[in-house]
Amino acid sequence: MIQHRPNLDWMLKDLAESVPQTRHVIVLSSDGLRMAQHGTDTDTADRLAAACAGLQSLAGAVSSEFPRSDGRMRMVVIELDGGFFYLMAAGAGAYLAVLADEDVDAGLIGARMRDLVARIGEHLSSPPRHNGQVV
Q: How far is residue 76's CA from residue 68's CA, in Å, rounded to a whole number?
């Protein structure tokens, strides 16, 4: 059964345009499937979504080192030569990812990501799948 999701692309565009130096904005499921995108082609968005699933899993493994952690990743930030990568939990089984140039206002992008998730978090969720089917 395919579940209809609202078109989130315009909301991602709003995030990207409100923060100068933002390159790509992607919403993905916890298993690495692209749900929405802005500022990138489908192949790049799919590669980034798959990589994000791996990062989310690694963050969960690291969380075991914190005694009071529930194991859920809230946000991962990676600074690279040339830019930043942000991955934020964005609803049940969904994540918001942003790639931005090195001149981005890091505090502003984090705040806008949190605002977007708070505003539309219930739309940024992905129901669990079993054998490729929504459960």
A: 18
Element (H, E) at 36: strand 34-38
Residue ranges per structural domain of the chain: 9-104
Whether the CB-CB separation of 87 and 52 falls below 8 Å is answered with yes
**The two three-digit tokens of residue 116, written as one number:** 């977007």
- Position 86 scores a pLDDT of 95
Q: What is the pLDDT of residues 75-127, one digit of tens each?
A: 999 999 999 999 999 888 889 999 999 999 989 999 999 999 988 766 665 55
Q: Give the pair of three-digit tokens for residue 134.
A: 């929504």
Is domain 9-104 given the CATH code 3.40.50.300 in the classification?
Answer: no
3-state secondary structure of 85: strand
Check: pTM over 0.90? Answer yes or no: no
